[in-house]
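Researcher: Structure prediction, please.
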Amino acid sequence: MDVNPDSSYIRPARRGKHKIFIGMAPGVGKTYKMLEEAHQFKQDGIDVVIGFLETHGRKETAQKALGLEVIPKKIIIHKSINLEEMDSEAILARSPQLVLVDELAHTNVPGSIREKRYQDVELILAAGIDVYSTVNIQHLESLNDVVARITGVVVRERIPDRLLDEADEVVVIDVTPETLEERLREGKIYAADKIEQSLQNFFQRRNLIALRELALREVADTVEEEGNTSTAIGQSCNIHERVLICISTYPNSIQLLRRGARLASYMNAPLYTVFIADPERFLTKQESLHIDTCEKLCREFDGEFLHVKSSNVAQTIAQVAATHHITQIVIGESQQPRWKRFIKGSFTQRLMDLIRDKKIDLHIIATEK
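Model: Predicted structure follows.
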């Protein structure tokens, strides 16, 4: 359908949908991708406008904006200087179906009605207008300290984590650090006089690798959380690896813990350790000390130690794995005599039967008897 911007568009009585384009650093192509999608919507007859666009002098971005209606910026006088800000009230008066808003973490000029641009976006969303916005991973509040440790830069402009949680869609615009460095050297991100300084500081290869991982992980966490909220009971959506080590009173549990911790480290995965105590049996002093040692070792590996009472070990391991969205279970080779395994059945087989449909890998580690 063709939409005439001047015609009366009846807005549905709902909150607008918010799509966030996120990246590891400036120059990955967030704004370009947002504009690209906006042109497609315009071709499909959607009434789309640019609420605020910051090209930073990038020719490709500026050219991509051609043909899209732009809401004029608001002039605010601060310390006798004319400064430009997004005119949220003009956007509300224009009432498009979709508005594009660059740099979500921006702090508005003193004297503005709202302090932060994301607050302007929330106002627009509340009016039933859809918003596409852009932000870099370093602007996320919870990652502020992590980013400072990685880059040595304390980011002043931040957005609350809830914006990502509440967004209808979050898309990572991902490029390799090598590609980003190449764009920087070609002058596609900053002016020539800033290139070398950027490469020596924020755009160092190790910084970009770490920031890229942060961006990918943040969105993966969001997707996984949404998946686990929306999927049926008994099912889960696991994107990250999570390792569960199952220890016992046998001394080889220390070996098992170290092997499992190495596996978690290789996978860059959260580590959990579980000890399942028989409720009908008291531990000896030596056994209690052994379990305490395992718990301390688990915490040294930054893991979470779980102490559970149950007479059904296999069933309880399966339940713990489901609760914590485990993807890898580590157990030790059975210490039971062969005749006991023959009479009672194989513990390993019972556990395999319980986790077979859960997409969990089982690692059986041979340890010294």
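Model: Residues 1-8, 339-344 have pLDDT under 50 and may be disordered.
Researcher: Thanks, that helps.
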